[in-house]
Each structure stands twice: as structure tokens, then as C-alpha cells.
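Milestone M4 deliverable, item 7.
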Amino acid sequence: MPAPLREVLAALDARYDPALAEGWDAVGLVCGDPDEPVDRVLFAVDPTTAVVDEVVGTGAQLLVTHHPLLLTPVHAVPADDPRGGLVHRLIRARAALFVAHTNADRAPDVGVNAALADALGLTGAVPLEQAGTDPRAGLGRVGDLPEPMSLRAFAERVAVALPATVGGVRSSGEPGRVVRRVAVCGGSGGSLLAAAAAAGADVLLTSDLKHHPASEAAEVDGPALVDVAHYASEWPWLPVAAGRLSADLAGRVEVAVSRLRTDPWTHHVGQHPAAGEHPEHR
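Output delivered:
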């Protein structure tokens, strides 16, 4: 028996408390009728055109994404606008859109960062930056690997654990450096470098690291850095969230995880070392 959308939304809000979201964020129901029945839910990182195609093609009545469709303020959603067009397509298909963004980042146990720490096999993982009074809720995670390994081996572990992207996995630090304690932050987590250092992390894994902070970090005795695609760092949350929603609703809704890669980068050209050699060094 399908569940009404409002019941599904209540289950999602119970796991991903809207109060944990940043003030600038746009979380919750974007479009949809709370009284409509739901028997199939699709989870994805991004609400892209291809993902909406998948929603329409599979007949899902609810799309749950991590990234908002309408993060910046809008005054209208006409059908000939790229974002407005997606809203119109969802409505015509009688499908709702729900977003769990920074509230999912901070959620305990089944949040984005908890899922990332679990995907890497970290033990005893706790938030890097606690949110509220719940010691399990907060931004990022820091925990220990089952056994020490080199930075090179850790980067290889990351490459296996996360979805493949054209950007791959980059690291900053001596490849042979031994790492045991690992800090992670799904998405853009460069601001947590100081917190990772304070927590005794040997390495910080996150996304979207900028040149200057990474260069400065390499000059001090702090954590090494591992940079992965933003999409890849947040994807492990999808099967966790989907599985928990199914359990919370006692299997009344079918859940699925989109296998579409919504990382925006589509091609990579490798360079032979000599090809990128600085003219002064030739």
C-alpha cells in the first residue's frame, strides 16, 4: 500500500532535521502535493535533466536529492527557464522533489559525512564540528583506519571506495607518509582543515580544495590532503538514506538510487610530464 507523500516527508525530516540546515540553505519540499500517494522514491545527488528523465521514465513519485534545485532566490519558474522547466516536468509527471542538503551533512548516523566515513572503513568516527547538543550531529567526521597505511595507499583506497570520476583522486603530501587518523567532509570542506588538525588527523579528505589553502597547508606540519570530486564524496549517502527510508516506512515504498553520474566534468586529458614542463626548465 503506497504511503501519502506527507508521511514520507515526515520520515525524511525525522532523519534529516531541517533545523540542522544552514540559514542560507534551501531544504525540504520543492514541489509536490503532500496528499498524493507515493510508492516509488528515487535518490540522487543532483536534480539534473537526466535525473528528472529517470524519474519520469521509472514512474517515481518522489525524487530526493542532496543538492537543491533552487538554492539561489528566484521570483518565477517559467517552463522555458532551465530550472523552471524541471519543476514543470516533475509536476506534470505528478512527481515531488525533496532536498536534504546541509541538514543531511550534519545528520547523525545516516548523514552524508557518516556515510562517507563508513565507506572508507573508519572506526570510532565523530563529528569534526558538533552541531547543537547531540554529540553525534555535526559537520565532517574524524576516525581511525583499521591499520596504518601510506598516503599513497590511502588515496588508492579512496579511489576504490568512491564512484569513479574523470578527475580521479588527488593528494597533497609525501606519498609515503603514514596515515592512521582520517578526517572527512563531503562536499566543499576546506574550511575544516584547522579542525582536522586539532583533532589529530593525519589527512583530510574533502572536495573543491583551492590552490592557495592547499599550498599553505603543504608548508606546515598539518594533515595531508586528499581531494575528490564533490559528487563522489557525497554519493555514499544515497544508498544509506534510501535503505533507511525503506525501513522507516516498513517497506511500503520502493526505493532506488540513481546510477547516473552527475559530476559535471566529462573528460580528462592526461599529460606526459615533459609536455607540462615549464619553459625555464627545458
